[in-house]
Amino acid sequence: EIVLTQSPATLSFSPGERVTLSCRASQSVSSYLAWFQQKPGQAPRLLIYDASTRAAGVPARFSGSGSGTDFTLTISSLEPEDFAVYYCHQRSNWPLTFGGGTRVEIK
Amino acid sequence: EMQVLESGGELVQPGGSLRLSCAASGFTFNKFTMTWVRQAPGKGLEWVSTLSGTGGATYYADSVKGRFTIASDNSKNTMFLQMNSLRADDTALYFCAKGHYFDLWGRGTLVTVSS
Question: N or C: which end of chain A has fewer CB within 10 A?
Fold first, then answer.
């Protein structure tokens, strides 16, 4: 099973700041990595797939990069609505797996 | 508008059974891979099972293999998750998600396993 590690579990930022979130895979997932955003009481929302492709309707301030085992989600300028939990997910190998999530909270 | 809507979750005793449904609309259901993902209270996301849109192959997490069965009724644009031998650690909000990229999610249906 491929383990996805997201650390730290919680990060604190102020609106307008640049945010970089990390996801590390225990073995290569090529570019088969996605990022999801989840707000309280809501379903997850796809932000990025195949490591760097923005999903439909996702603002340009969100970008993804990386391949192999190290991936990054960047929010160029944090908006108030971006405070949420972010999960990475790999579809390279069965079983599919998710990272434990990083909560982005208001400083 | 594309939508998926889960239903069937409820309180069930340990060892009991439940069938969840995921009704799809706004897209050609049988062309897409569909997946169940669950989230225990206050926890992260856990992949449960996937039904391939081409060929109908099925895949299961080890934690549910042999107890859960994924299936679909394409005439009704609906996917199912038959859950048997339920345990307390199956308690979660169960989501269905569309496609390889999980680009569409429902709001989830809550399964509580407790005596």
Answer: C
